[in-house]
Known about the structure:
Layout: H1 3-11, E1 23-27, H2 34-51, E2 55-58, H3 77-91, E3 95-98, H4 102-109, E4 114-117, H5 125-133, E5 137-141, H6 151-162, E6 166-170, E7 173-174, E8 180-181, H7 186-191, E9 197-200, E10 206-207, E11 216-217, H8 222-232, E12 236-242, E13 256-257, H9 261-276
Parallel strand pairs: 1-2, 1-12, 2-3, 3-4, 4-5, 5-6, 6-9, 9-12, 12-13
Antiparallel strand pairs: 7-8, 10-11
Helix pairs in contact: 2-3, 2-9, 4-5, 5-6, 8-9
Amino acid sequence: xxxxxxxxxxxxxxxxxxxxxxxxxxxxxxxxxxxxxxxxxxxxxxxxxxxxxxxxxxxxxxxxxxxxxxxxxxxxxxxxxxxxxxxxxxxxxxxxxxxxxxxxxxxxxxxxxxxxxxxxxxxxxxxxxxxxxxxxxxxxxxxxxxxxxxxxxxxxxxxxxxxxxxxxxxxxxxxxxxxxxxxxxxxxxxxxxxxxxxxxxxxxxxxxxxxxxxxxxxxxxxxxxxxxxxxxxxxxxxxxxxxxxxxxxxxxxxxxxxxxxxxxxxxxxxxxxxxxx
Length: 277
C-alpha cells in the first residue's frame, strides 16, 4: 500500500472498513514523548503498506483511569495533543485517542480522526453525546461488565444524536476479580448492530485488580487472541505496541514488543486470505 492509498485513507477514514483486509489500530498506551511516537509510526507504516492493511495510530493523550495515585497519567494535555497532531500531519496517518469527560471531546476532536470511549465509560450518556457532537467517528469499547446486546443502547446514543459512524470494540469480559476472558460470540453479535467491530488484543489479556495497584497481563496470548479474532471475522484489530514494553510508562505488561508486530500481521493476513478465498 503506497503513499497514494495512505492519503485516501487519511482523507476519509470512514472508508477504512470497506477495505478487503482488516484494519489495524496500533500504538503505545500513552503519549510518552515525540520520539517514541515517531519511531512507532515509522516502523509500522512500511509493514502495513506492504501488507495492505489500513492503519490508524493510537495513543492516549491522558490516562485518567489509573489504579494508583502515583501512576503515570500523561505528559500534559496540550503537549500530548500537539504530538498527536504532528504525527497525523507529518505521516499523513489517521489518529485516535480516548477521552474521559465531555469537555475533552472538543479538544481531542481538533487533532484526531476517531474518538475512543474507554470501556468503563461506555454507558456515560453525556460523554457519548459530546463525542457525537464533534462529528468524528466514535469507537466505543464494550464494558467488561456488558454483554453485546446492551451495546445497542450506546450505539443508539451516538446515531440518534448526529448520525455519526460508530465502531465497537471487544476487549474482554470480567472473569472473577483478577482476570478477563474473550467471548468471541460478541464479535458477530455486535456486528449484527450494523457497525464495524474491533478486537482489542492487548487489553483483553489484562489481569486487573492486582494488590500492588498495577495491572498485570500475559502478552504471550496476543497472537492467540488476534488469530481467533480474524478467524471470527472481526473488522479491525487493536494492538498496543512499544519498542521496549518493559520501559513503557503505562500498561507495559500487556503490550506487544514492536519487533514482533510484523510476523504477527503476516500471520493474520494469511488467516484472512484463507477465509475470503
